[in-house]
Write a structure and sequence with these properties.
Keywords: Membrane, Transmembrane, Transmembrane helix. The protein is α/β, with parallel strands linked by helices. Helix content is 49%, strand content 8%. It has a six-stranded mixed sheet with strand order 2-1-3-4-5-6. Helix 3 links the parallel strand 1 (82-86) and strand 2. The protein starts with 5 loop residues before the first helix and ends with a helix.
């Protein structure tokens, strides 16, 4: 049996250690560079944006598409006492810096793009896990969020919710992933290429529309109308989603949180879509169930001086048939919080209760018939898109 000389064994051991160190260095170095670069640019705005440099990473266009990520992390850091909860209608329309919200700061806009009511419920639970002393929830409700066919969006992830620290998976994905590296590169490029006047900024979860008078409003109405007929042609009011709403009510009651629900002010054209698709009875049933569950709910989705704004290339109140602008969001907050209500159009918003529900629904039917007579061009607009959608 051959034996290696002790000095030779010692030399081989040193060589092995040196090789492993060198190998480890060349493995770790690229990861450190990528991680450091992504951390510096922070394309999703998840690290409290500790380093902001104009024309480098101040403008973060990729943040908009990752609201379920950065908003879950913002809740961990901010622990708000007031949240504005709902879909992108809330995200785009309700300003957390509105003076009526000063009672329970900090305030955070927790609106999520395309969210169903289950996702909305889970983000409320995430907020309560991080701040059991939550004081107020203003909940924007949309008919589409209760459609059985609308599932969780791809960016939704259970693993990051009800955690008091950022999930390791999110830490890795936002620093070491190649997708984030690509987003960082796009962020830098966008800061160089996009004029300052076209850069949008998000604060406290609020991302208002900034180019409402760009002359493309009719195009956006056409796109959102087409999307409604595609996604909701077989609309089915989900019993499971109504249970999620019930859970939201129970969570607020159990935690002594003031819950202020309201139905978003859909434009008259969106109301016509619901009618043209044969879902008006379901729409009314949805309202009935909400009143039965909550006792009362503010309804801005009736026909009024705001929702009847005439369709044109440039509008003051609407970006498309369901997304309203900040001034409308301010009026909503004024109304539901009883703040400077003299500034709000008198016909904008009605509190649905068990006592007035039947009367209000009947008035809405009459107003719908009147609207169809007064806005024949909008009725034809809807009919044309519906026919094209069925044809295709």
């Amino acid at each position: 049996m051959l034996h290696q000389h002790p000095k030779k064994r010692h030399k081989n051991s040193h060589q092995s250690i040196a090789f492993n160190l060198l190998f480890g260095f060349w493995v770790i170095l690229p990861l450190a560079i990528v991680g450091g670069f992504n951390l510096l640019i922070d394309p999703y705005g998840v690290y409290n944006e500790f380093f902001i440099l104009r024309q480098l990473n101040e403008y973060k266009p990729k943040k908009e598409d990752n609201d379920r990520l950065y908003k879950a992390i913002d809740i961990i850091h901010l622990q708000p006492n007031t949240i504005l909860l709902g879909s992108s209608r809330v995200k785009r329309g309700l300003d957390p810096n509105h003076p009526a919200l000063e009672a329970f700061p900090p305030v955070y806009n927790l609106g999520l793009n395309g969210a169903n009511i289950y996702e909305i419920r889970r983000y409320l639970e995430h907020t309560l896990a991080n701040n059991p002393r939550l004081k107020r929830v203003i909940l924007g409700l949309d008919f589409f969020t209760f459609d059985h066919h609308i599932k969780n969006q791809p960016g939704f992830a259970e693993y990051r919710l009800e955690k008091k620290q950022v999930a390791w998976k999110d830490k890795i994905n936002t620093t070491l992933s190649l997708d984030t590296l690509a987003s960082s590169q796009e962020t830098i490029q966008a800061n160089f290429d996009t004029p300052r006047s076209e850069q949008f900024s998000e604060h406290q979860g609020f991302l208002p529309y900034f180019k409402i008078h760009d002359g493309n409003t009719e195009i956006r109405f056409q796109g959102s109308t087409t999307l409604f007929f595609i996604e909701h042609k077989n609309y089915q009011l989900s019993a499971a989603y109504m249970q999620d709403l019930k859970k939201i009510v129970q969570l607020c009651q159990q935690n002594e949180v003031e819950l202020i629900p309201f139905i978003s002010p859909a434009h008259g054209i969106r109301l016509q879509l619901i009618y043209a698709s044969g879902k008006w009875p379901v729409f009314e049933e949805w309202k009935r169930q909400m009143v039965a569950l909550m006792g009362s709910v503010w309804d801005f989705s009736n026909y009024n001086s705001v929702t009847e704004e005439r369709l044109s290339e440039s509008m003051n109140y609407y970006v498309d048939d369901s997304h309203y602008t900040k001034p409308i969001g301010d009026w909503i907050l004024n109304r539901v919080l009883g703040y400077q209500e003299e500034e709000v159009p008198p016909d904008f918003g009605v509190l649905l209760t068990r006592d007035n529900l039947d009367r209000v629904l009947e008035n809405n039917r009459q107003d719908r018939d009147r609207w169809q007579q007064e806005y024949p061009e909008s009725v034809e607009f809807v009919q044309s898109i519906q026919a094209d959608t069925i044809k295709n």
